[in-house]
Design a protein that fits this description.
Blueprint: E1 2-7, H1 13-23, E2 29-36, E3 52-54, H2 63-76, E4 81-84, H3 93-98, E5 103-107, H4 119-125, E6 130-137, E7 147-154, H5 161-184, E8 188-191, E9 194-197, E10 200-201, E11 206-207
This protein binds glycinamide ribonucleotide (GAR).
Length: 208
């Protein structure tokens, strides 16, 4: 069974989608831990207390010590895949290297468009006619790893950042579950930093 660890900073609706997909028997997986930089994150409450790790970076002497502790806790949970699902802190290169090839992130834009924050407002400002979400491999450079899968939504007249965010979030959940199904089944994989699908190099993101 596929061991999934989740990094989350806030609400955890993507985490809840994983919890629900496992409960429904759709995703053959187990959530081995939820890890947060915010001890009060709602996300932590979505799993049993013995699977929660919530510690603020300020509890540690510096960022390296924080990421060492986070990484040690994560490693102890022996995950096959580590999903950043609304984890709002940039991971350092040492951390990314430690879990290289097992880290994915869900980002609320059609990468390579709109890396970083405020993606919905920026899609509107840019006049984009469509927007969406991407699941990608994590590399040290922010939101720059190979994109595995994307889901698209239209930008509609009258949208504001909030309405657009809601439309994107509604496709994030099925996108993340479909991607995790493929990752857990070994159909979608990472070899030397490049994604493969059924053993073949994946040149463009799966449209899910
Ligand atoms: C999601 O929209 C996710 O794509 C985004 O934060 C939200 C978390 O929602 N992630 C990022 O912006 C990462 N840079 P959730 O806590 O309800 O899953």
């Amino acid at each position: 069974i596929c061991r999934i660890a989740v990094l989350a900073s806030g609400r955890g609706s993507n985490l809840q989608a994983i919890v629900d997909a496992i409960a429904a028997g759709r995703l053959q997986a187990e959530i081995v831990g939820v890890f947060s930089d915010r001890p009060d994150a709602t996300a932590l409450e979505r799993v049993a207390a013995d699977r929660r790790w919530g510690h603020a970076p300020k509890e540690f002497s510096d960022r390296a010590a924080y990421e060492q502790a986070l990484g040690d806790a994560l490693a102890a949970s022996a995950p096959d895949w580590i999903v950043c699902a609304g984890y709002m802190r940039i991971l350092g290169a040492d951390f990314v290297q430690r879990f290289n090839g097992r880290l994915v992130n869900i980002h609320p834009s059609l990468l390579p468009l709109h890396k970083g924050l405020h993606t919905h407002a920026r899609a509107l400002e840019a006049g984009d006619s469509e927007h969406g979400a991407s699941v990608h491999l994590v590399v040290p450079e922010l939101d720059a790893g190979a994109v595995l899968a994307q889901a698209r939504v239209p930008v509609l007249a009258g949208d504001d950042a909030q309405t657009l965010a809601e439309r994107v979030l509604a496709v994030e959940h099925p996108l993340l579950i479909a991607t995790l199904e493929l990752l857990c089944a070994g159909r979608l994989a990472e070899r030397e930093g490049q994604p493969t699908f059924d053993g073949h190099p994946l040149f463009s993101p799966l449209a899910l």
